[in-house]
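Hey forum,

I'm writing up a methods section and want to include a predicted complex as supplementary material. The small molecule is flavin-adenine dinucleotide. I've pasted the protein sequence and the SMILES. Can someone with a working setup run it? I'll credit the forum in the acknowledgements.
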Amino acid sequence: MNQSKVTTHQILIEGLRQTFSGRLLTDAPDMAAYLIDWRKRYQGQALAVVEPINTEEVANIVRFCAKHAINIIPQGGNTSLSGGSVPNPTGKNIVIGLKRLNQIREIDAQNNTMTVEAGCILEAIQIAAKEVNRLFPLSLASQGSCTIGGNLATNAGGVQVLRYGNTRELCLGLEVVTAEGNIWHGLRGLRKDNTGYNLKDLFIGSEGTLGIITAAVLKLFPLPAFKQLAWVAVQSTTHALQLLTLSKQHTGDSLTAFELISDNCLNLVLKHFKQCHSPLKSPSPWYILLEVSENRPEESHKLYLYGVLCDMLKIALETHLILDAVVSDNEQQFKRLWTLRESISAAQTMEGANIKHDIALPISKIPAFIEKTEQAIRTNFPNAHLITFGHLGDGNLHYNVYHSKNSRDNCIPHQASINRIVHDAVDSLNGSISAEHGLGVLRRDEAARYKSPIELNLMLDIKQALDPHNRMNPNKVLLKK
Ligand SMILES: Cc1cc2nc3c(=O)[nH]c(=O)nc-3n(C[C@H](O)[C@H](O)[C@H](O)COP(=O)(O)OP(=O)(O)OC[C@H]3O[C@@H](n4cnc5c(N)ncnc54)[C@H](O)[C@@H]3O)c2cc1C
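Reply by user p_vandermeer:
Happy to help. Structure tokens for the complex are below, copy them as they are.
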């Protein structure tokens, strides 16, 4: 590291202290939480962490960085699962923490939109929408910590994509600070706008590598009057897929979530969260958590949907499509069933290190993928265990591999070989190696391996056009030559 250059940068950064007052962090203990990722796999260093409170301050700090050739790492809630939100260990970058940019600028209930700043916590947005009798449907287990800016930057998915789409589909307009520090005012609440290239969709999913999202116009929906949940046991993923088809036929647009959970996932949750209980008497290889919802408040609609769900499950039982099922009949039971699903990530972490895969496949290919990949992993790594769960309705699996704590055969050092088995299988079925967590650094080189040269070069051309000096979250998503 060039000591004199770092000192120059440090002196320059001191010049910002008056403007940012307590919002310029340079001491190691103050910066610590910003420099390590949620999974504690990536530890970085930084010249400083800056916390702007408005778009103009973001633009000013970006211009300062452009002028002094300092790289920028935008950070929201730092819940990224792919190492995208933390700086590298060189200590030459500035982290721009966006959580103080947290105003809800406008709610237009008639247009069914809300305009929010990037640092708003997802849960706070859901609550604000509910206060005007609307739904903002993005829903993730990290919603108490992640920010809407991070959700947009990663095009987050979650448990209601089946009905409402992912973050990209929930966003109508953006405000962005470009790599030069200019502000693009694209906060339009329009459902139709065919005036040339779609810049909004370039920034969504770009993981902070093209610019900093400072605000967004989000779509709102009618608030569901009630929801119903079923926990269903099935013998195989083939049966699970058939149940998905049957559910769509019977419940139509009311189907909001269709989550796959392996028995191993349930057992991990029961092991680490003693307050949780299995909803059914007998274990089964796979479970489905199936949610339906209804917007019309009248009791007759509620009873009708409940009837449709129960009738569908009855048919599934009689035709041996499912082994057993329980339907939530009160709010507490509803929450308890969702808690089982939402505790899987935490239970995995408590069990120890694991190798994560976040894959998307054509829904019809999921049983073939599971059979083929499981066999290959068991043959090559007999002590490895699989945690398979995910948003089956969207063709998105979280396919994670770990070894039990007592096993001497640690599979973590074999990450590269395990990735090869899983990602080759995904590629052979025309799937994607990142469904919703982005590439960050964790999957950057894997993506480069599977993307065609044309696709990679087009991505590099876009990066070159929008961030020619490679200042914005450098070396995340793709490596610039
Ligand atoms: C328990 C748990 C469950 C999760 N479940 C899901 C899930 O179901 N579905 C899902 O999709 N993800 C899930 N995630 C991953 C994570 O929560 C999402 O990726 C989330 O969208 C990240 O938001 P964040 O504010 O924490 O962003 P960060 O982690 O801070 O940043 C993520 C990326 O976005 C960039 N970024 C952040 N803010 C901005 C901005 N304003 N402008 C430009 N770039 C920015 C960062 O540089 C980084 O590359 C989960 C994570 C955890 C810990």
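Some notes you might quote in the supplement: The first strand starts at residue 24 and ends at 25. The longest helix spans residues 299-318.
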